[in-house]
Amino acid sequence: xxxxxxxxxxxxLAYNAKLLRAHGIFKEAEYxxxxxxxxxxxxxxxxxxxxxEQKGVAPSRAFDPTYYVARYPVVGRAxxxxxxxxxxxxxxxxxxxxxxxxxxxxxxxxxxxxxxxVLATHAPSQSGQDxxxxxxxVRSLATEYDVVVAYAFSTGTTREPEAAQAIxxxxxxxxxxxxxxxxxxxxxxxxxxxxxxxxVVHDLDAARLIVPLSQSGIPIFSTIQHFPDxxxxxxRAVFQHARASIFAGPEVSNRARILFPMLTSxxxxxxxxxxxxxxxxxxSRIAERLREELKVAAEDLGHTSQPAGFQDLWQD
Length: 316
What we know:
There is one protein chain. By secondary structure, the chain is of the alpha/beta class. The chain folds into 2 domains: 5-98, no CATH class; 102-315, Rossmann fold. It has 12 helices and 7 strands. The protein has helices spanning 10-22, 34-39, 44-52, 65-71, 73-78, 82-90, 128-141, 180-194, 207-214, 231-241, 250-259, 279-300, and strands at 115-119, 146-151, 166-169, 198-201, 220-222, 244-247, 267-270. A 7-stranded parallel beta sheet has the order 3-2-1-4-5-6-7, sandwiched between helices. Strand 1, helix 7 and strand 2 form a beta-alpha-beta unit. The longest helix has 22 residues, at 279-300. It is elongated, with a radius of gyration of 23 Å. The N and C termini lie far apart (54 Å).
């Protein structure tokens, strides 16, 4: 039995379609091109094998052909059907059918306001001050935006900050760091799920996601307030891609400029009166400055071409 779709006759395609259904890889209710298949008067599973798979469309939530080929390039080079390769070979070799991102629980937003994505960390080592600053920051932003807080590399559960409209946590079985393929798919899922109008990096742990997220053209801002030892090695991308960085006071700003020389040519904002009544108030002040930076970005883009994802930000 051949698993190269372009070499199959009608009967072989029908047989392969039957196998995909029997093994739960193809499910009509989850096939995005179901209406197109019906309009073409084709069996939906055959439509997937002959049309959908070539477009990178998934046959169900159980299998992602785009991810499978990216994860295992030899499959793409062989010119075989990713789904059939998984069924006949990949499954026995314990190859992944979907990305790690598919295991993330990403709650839906109930509102219809523009969304903002905040990348943070949630760990036992996180201080109460850090949590309070984040809580004040999110509470202030939540007056205008549906705020999504993503603890993309932290497992467990949390309801903090309470003002967030959605909180994303890593799956409990997350083991080790994610490689480029997994990070790309995680970024893609976050963007397609929430369609954020801006992205905020609130913690250096999120630096790993910056490169794939930056490819969307959605504006990125940094609100990082402390730099642990060894921060420079893995966090350069944050400041390379951030439109502006907001620091609570000159001490933090000066250390950032020493660690990351590229900041000398970037826009930085220092909140000099950073000794305030409460940590949540500091978070609120950072949010106020972010709003100002969003306006500056809108003005900067007023006479230039806007990257993908930027245009609707300024029309909401």
